[in-house]
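hi got a favour to ask and not much time before my train. below you get a single protein, a line of residues and a line of whole numbers that encode the local backbone shape. could you go over both lines and see whether the tokens make sense for that sequence. a few lines back from you is plenty, here it is:
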Amino acid sequence: MVEGFSLKAFYKKYFYTIVVAGAVFLLSILFSLTIQEDSSANFQSILIEEGDTLWSIASRYEESHLTKAEFIAWIEEYNEVRADALQPGETIVIPVTQDEHIQSMASAE
């Protein structure tokens, strides 16, 4: 043990600092998880219809912030589906927020 150093004295002197640092750490983790859940819940879900392909869906939502290839890759990864395995009646999530879709519909009119 280092002469003049006492773990008990250190703990007593910095107890509140340790508690506050721990609380900040835990709250930041909880806040981070909440943000991730909220952002994915805001994406739009669409129903696959006869003749739909990921390419045609990407064309329909061209104003998205992604290229068509990125759009398709995002759908395949997020929904765990392959482009050639889409079935009519299936619901998938696309990387377009409800707000973006409403804005694009309003500007089209």
